Amino acid sequence: MSVKWDGTKLLKTIVANEESTAKLYRAIAENANIGAKFFEILAADEERHKKIYEALLVKYADKLGLELDEAYSEYIDLLIRRNVVFDNKLIEDAKTITMRDQILDIAERAERDAILFVSELQKMYPDMATDEMGIILNEERKHLKMVLEKQGLPQPYIRGL
């Protein structure tokens, strides 16, 4: 059975993720002493991505309603509900984290979520699967690869991202 679904929820979630992840990365860059330049670069990319998604919200405002399979709709809704947007408390807490592994675990989760959301967005709205979206997806994959490399994971594990 199919259900009506509004993609505005997903795009707004992605916008919020990009914004909060940029804030998180800036907080880490300012306080964590594990690669300020690295996290500043990631933050700048996330801010640019946020602007692109905001423009998509405007451009596609009246085209975000669609019919989805009920199970798929429930899956996407669950992803949105379970999504961790880094709120101000989490960002403040990140400033006090001194363990490199903890910081990189948080960054890994943020980048994995971004890849998942963008992939689902492109699947549901092929018209949005523009060159710009492809660039963002590749950048998010690159971010994840860089974070995994900083974690010191074996090369075969990260190959192909």
* Domain module count: 1
Strand content: 5-15%
Which sheet architecture does the biggest sheet show? 2 strands, antiparallel
CATH architecture term: Up-down Bundle
Counted by DSSP, the helix tally is: 7
CATH topology: Ferritin
Notes on the protein architecture:
This protein has seven helices and two strands. With 161 residues, it is mainly alpha-helical. The chain has a two-stranded antiparallel ribbon with strand order 1-2. The protein is elongated and about 50 Å long. It starts with a strand and ends with a helix. The model is unreliable at 157-161 (pLDDT under 50).
Salient structural properties:
161 residues, disordered C terminus, 6% strand, two-stranded antiparallel ribbon, Ferritin, 7 helices, 74% helix, mainly alpha, elongated, single chain
Strand and helix map with partners:
Layout: E1 2-6, H1 8-31, H2 36-59, E2 65-69, H3 70-82, H4 88-96, H5 100-124, H6 131-150, H7 155-158
